[in-house]
Amino acid sequence: MFVIYGRNPVREALLDRRWDMKTLFLAREGRDPHLAEIVALARERRIPLEYRDKRAMDELASGGVHQGVVGFCSDYGYADGNALVSETVRSGGILLLLDGLSDPGNFGAIIRTGYCFGVQGILIPRDRSVRVTPTVMKASSGALLQVPVASVVNFARTLDGMKEAGFWIYGTDAKEGKDLRSVDFRGPVGIVFGSEDKGIRPLVRKKCDAFLTVPISRPFDSLNVSVAAGIVLYEICRKRAESATGTRGSG
Prior knowledge:
By secondary structure, this protein is of the alpha/beta class. Helix 6 links the parallel strand 6 and strand 7. Helix 1 packs parallel to helix 2 and helix 5 packs parallel to helix 9. The relative contact order is 0.14. The model has no long low-confidence stretch (mean pLDDT 90).
């Protein structure tokens, strides 16, 4: 079973019928009025409601911040990586590739940012990588329900297939790469972010067509990966909006 907790993630799951909610648990104490919409949605879908005390709720959420609501769903279903690549080629969109990310908080934050900036989906390696978990769901504030995540067996081979399909693959590097602001991001693009401690693996680096660097004002080792993802995606969207309207920014 897949556990979803927190008001916004549970609400989004109830609104999206692709998620098969089995049972909804609510805090017995106080009967929070903010949960009224969630209760109404659950009753509309005829999902069983059960009330528990605070200790039981904390156990159901494995100590996570549940805000008085925990839902049990069928297991998370990863997207088909090949289908995701094909759809993104047709739309000329953006795929994120997370090479060995380990922190579920960073993963959730990247999913949330990706949703805000219109990414088509996210690809992760099947091994030695963070997986989709309830913590990731909570950190994404429910955006995981809107952004498909695919788990692929061979990351380097997946990049080869993407390039053959028409993608331009950009790796990210804190010190070596083109200034993010100088790049034309038209067409289908894949953006690779490495792990928090080691960055992009050497074999995956070799598959990248070019590297991007986020310009910073003061000398520092590197940005947090989720922060860097937000900056990169903002700039891609800004550049694409300029191209679509024929305008040029002042920077």
